[in-house]
Amino acid sequence: MLTRPQAEQILEEILATRSEMDDAECKSGAGNALQHALCAMSNRHDRNGGVVFVGIDEIARGMVPPFDLTPYLQAPLNVLDNDLIDSYIKQVKKIRPASQIKRLSREEVLRSVHAIAECDRQWHPTPTGLLFFCHEPQRYLPQSALEFLHLWEPELTSLGPDNSRWRLNRELTGTLPQIITEAETLLLERIATRGIINGFRRHDEPEYPRFAMREAIVNAVAHRDYTLRGSRIQVRLFPDRIEIHTPGGLPAPVTVDNIEDEQAKRLCACCRIWALWKSAATALTALWRRCARRGCRRL
Prior knowledge:
The protein is an alpha/beta fold.
């Protein structure tokens, strides 16, 4: 429960910095904006909700850049790796042959995808730039790592033959595309497969659709709340299911009830161009459809 002195301290900080916080917003009065804010705060189970100050002119989000687009002042520009930037340029050329990206300098490319931003006439990486073009983004954003757990039993607290909870506990680091690929590889290595006979030919299929597993990981990475520094995405592989836990509540106006129809964006500046991002509604609908075809049960 938030006490009055705590609320007053938060409000003072908001008014002093002219910037709303991740778990504190200002609204001038009743209306759809207030409803969306209350919805977002009520979904934040990881941090016991949030606070909305009513009767105070809203500090427009457009005036304060989103977290992933703000210059990260603690990181110099040279932490962005030229090889990763060149790899990105090649990827864009491959996906979009008509793209004019080949005519741009590296700096112009980084500006075009909001990977760098200016502050006091100095250019710095943004969190987006660090997450995609820095070899060690966890040095600056430790919360961007992913924890992969392969558990012995269906219950999280159950122990295996060696009295440990998991067969494997591994921290995945690197750029977001690298983390996604490594998590997908670990799942494919460790889930069961079944042989499918088609005429005189046999091929093996993983227990869970590969598309669904990758889509679930991509959505977790693209839509997590990167302002929460003390928590990571967890991929938990149980004998009977896969669980993916993403830090942060559902962004307004998405709720558990309308998640298949409603859309919201968090980290989309680079994800869209990497062909990693899809709207949550479209991606989840496709994911559940693929799982249903394979006979997977939705919990």
